[in-house]
Amino acid sequence: MNQKELVKAVAADVNKKYDTAKKSHVSEATVGDVIKSFTTVTTEALAQGKNVQIVGFGSFKVAHRAATTGRNPATGEAINIPAKNVPKFKPGKAFKDAVN
Q: What is the domain extent for residue 92?
């Protein structure tokens, strides 16, 4: 599922939950903006070293990966791999149970 398909699916799911008599409707453009804002805010929080937890879904955090020495598979030459921070996602129990 790509982002466009996700936006359509979320908009359809939200609109299905509203009472049709109230004529409430959430546009795909609005859902797209919300998803973009979610990714922006999550990225900024992780860049600041903060964790993001969504109960029932999972948590995002930053892990530090230490520097190490690797090998070039073509030549066997040793190369230095620098230390870096990497994002990690740990799914919540409800999410794991729903997938299984």
A: 51-100
